[in-house]
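## retry 2 of 3
previous attempt timed out at serialization; input unchanged, resubmitting
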Amino acid sequence: MENFLHWIAGHQQMIYIVILMIFVGIEVIGHVPSVLHTPLMSGANAIHGVVIIGAIIVMGKAEPGNWAAIILGFIAVVLGTLNVVGGFVVTDRMLEMFKKKKKA
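## retry succeeded, writing output
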């Protein structure tokens, strides 16, 4: 318990920044009109490629015997890839709605 309290005391500024980011994110998302919510979320999912790159870096830097880092990195790559592909699919479907239909 004492180690945990020392960790909190050492990372107090980082904890405040994370809490502030949470409140700012909730406030920003809460004011997005429902018409724009789906395009923004699909775009955010497509940007999720940053997670894939981070997971690949973690797997590359992991020690050979550190199976936990390798397995968690692999799971992060798979889930991040699914999120990116899903973001592109949703965005593509939404853009198809705005195209003019061809007459036969």
